[in-house]
Amino acid sequence: MKIHKTKRNLALSLAAAAALLAACGGGFLANVGGQLTGLGSGLSVTLQNNLSDKLTLSSNQSFTFPTTLAAGASYSVTVLTQPTGQTCTVSNGSGTINTQGNSVTNVAVSCTSTVTLGGTLSGLPTSTLVTLLNQSGSTTTTLTTNGPFTLQGSWNVGASYSIVVSQQPSGHTCVVTNGSGVVSASGNTAINVSCQ
Question: pTM value?
């Protein structure tokens, strides 16, 4: 009889513990992490989760944020600091920890090298300007002086670019040559803008 009572008390204790865990969202704590690829040698990138939990990585590897999250909590992984000369983007970076408290391991951070593009402007009359448009990214660059120029922004290696004149100088016409192609690792400084 005493054994039966002990078993019954144990069963009640286990049931109470299970109910308490359920009331607390299961009591499970999950990690958030994933894989970093494409980071250049000698560079580092700083990630953050929920705008607070920070993690700096200096090599391509799997990663896990230091702070764990409870079941039902949301997560949002973003890039806080980009590596020099690269742009890193996050995929599968946001969601909610499931009710079982399973860890998240599929956040993907991919880094791509960036370069600058430019060229030479000639023939632009004094006190006038010409505006160039990158049709691929809708960014503009206004030039006021003949000579070498660099387009606004940085460019991912492998991306396409197409540079055209969006605003001509008053009373003159400028023509772009070598203004389209694919961004190489060395960039491009051969875009020519000639005005008449």
Answer: 0.62
Alpha-carbon 39 to chain mean position: 12
For 112-163, what is each residue's pLDDT tens digit? 988 989 999 999 999 999 999 998 777 899 999 999 999 998 888 888 999 9
Q: Which of residues 80, 114, 148 is at a domain's end?
A: 114
pLDDT category of residue 27 using cuts at 50, 70 and 90 = low
Same domain, 132 and 96: no
Structural domains counted in the chain: 2
How many percent of the chain have pLDDT more than 70?
A: 86
Domain containing 100 equals 26-114
Question: What is the rounded CA–CA span in Å between residue 196 and residue 123?
Answer: 6
- For residues 150, 152, 153, 159, the Cα torsion angle rounded to the nearest 10 degrees is -70
- The tokens 């605003």 sit on which residue? 167
Please indicate, yes or no, if residue 21 is contained in any of the structural domains.
no
User: In CATH, what number is assigned to the domain containing residue 76?
Assistant: 2.60.40
Residue after which a domain boundary falls, among 66, 98, 114: 114
